[in-house]
Write a structure and sequence with these properties.
This protein is mainly alpha-helical. It has one domain. The protein is built from 3 helices and 2 strands. It has a two-stranded antiparallel sheet with strand order 1-2. β1 and β2 form a beta hairpin. The two termini are about 25 Å apart.
């Protein structure tokens, strides 16, 4: 985790799905690339799984219990 005067920057975790999905569909977040906006929570979950576990070589099936 890195801290700056205004922000705490840490890696996303499985518990972040609600926050991730609530921020990502906001059009203000995607003014630079409107087609990147997520409107489907399952798609957001799949992206979050990739972000969280990209360096751990786990599959979505192995993560089912973690995200349930």
């Amino acid at each position: 985790m890195r801290q700056t005067p205004d922000y705490v920057l840490d890696r996303p975790c499985a518990d972040d799905l609600d926050q991730f999905f609530s921020i990502d569909p906001d059009p203000r977040v995607w003014t630079h690339l409107l087609s990147g906006r997520l409107t489907d929570e399952e798609e957001a979950e799949a992206i979050l799984v990739r972000l969280v576990f990209a360096d751990r070589e786990l599959t979505a099936a192995q993560l089912g219990a973690t995200l349930a």
